[in-house]
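Format notes (please read before filing issues)

Several people have asked whether sequences and structure tokens are stored in separate files. They are not. Every record keeps both together, in the order shown below: the sequence lines, then the token lines. Line labels are part of the format and must not be stripped during preprocessing.
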Amino acid sequence: MTTETNLPSLSTLEYIPFIDGNGQLPEQLQGKIGVYAIFDQEKVLQFVGYSRDVYLSLKQHLVRQPQHCYWVKAQTIERPNRTVLENIEHTWIAENGSVPSGNAQSKDKWTQSIDAKAVMTPEEQAKYDNPANDEMAQTKIIKNVARRVEAEILAVLEVRGLQTQIRFNPKLKENGLLDLK
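Then the structure lines:
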């Protein structure tokens, strides 16, 4: 267990592949409380966060930012302690020498549901904005946009070899949002 006086250095932790040779996420982090650092393909730090279930958080980040999730380093603790988790997070960011984009200007892309409305094609936007549409028609259009974005994400993850099942929350799609169930 980590104590405040024994904050682990990010550089001393092992890199764990985000998706292993069997297409699985790091199952050893399932149900674990801890701090994690996500790195891109070149092992450049992209995001540092903490969670009550590191595995679920990693899964969520993978669907939100698949192009940036190739490696992870993690430190788990036995009991939830926000102060300890935040101290580790701040220490790792300071050790990096600069704030990763996922903790700065791109934070929403890492921590919020995917907004399919933001990536509508001009054709989808024109259809959506058609004055003849009622609320039901707009909801249907938004749902279809969310399904398209979902399919694109799943295709990228399939190319990466992911075997872990990914299931998006169907209720959020009618609002144009994608998040895991």
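For reference, the curators noted about this record: The two ends are 30 Å apart (CA to CA). Residues 34 and 76 are 4 Å apart (CA to CA).
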